[in-house]
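The data are quoted verbatim for reference:
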Amino acid sequence: MSFNSSASFNINKPAASTSTGNNTKSTVNPRLEVTIKVNEISEEKDSALIAYIIEISQQAYKTEKLESTIAHTIKDKLEQFEDGKYGKLWHVIVGRSFGSYITFEKGYYIYFYIGSMAFQVFKTP
């Protein structure tokens, strides 16, 4: 399985973004810098989904205290996005240090950081 690193993405809010190598940084909120490490979600097809994942992750990161609650909040909101258009089989892993070995539906995986917190969001078939 190949992973495509994101060179840039569009969040429909005023944002500054910089690209360094395979990583993309966006400062939608200057205190919550986003660095996308791996993006398998098609930017041309699903840029709204990418923007939504980043937005709800930033909101949860700001409002929730526990990593498990952040993940739960993101999963719940993602499963309701566009009236469930993307299905209910989403998984979210949040933390500063974790390992994972996963299987995901092709085209539905993103791994990024908000500050020093890692976010792994993916859909299973």
Observations:
- The helical segments are 43-63, 67-80.
- The mean pLDDT is 81.
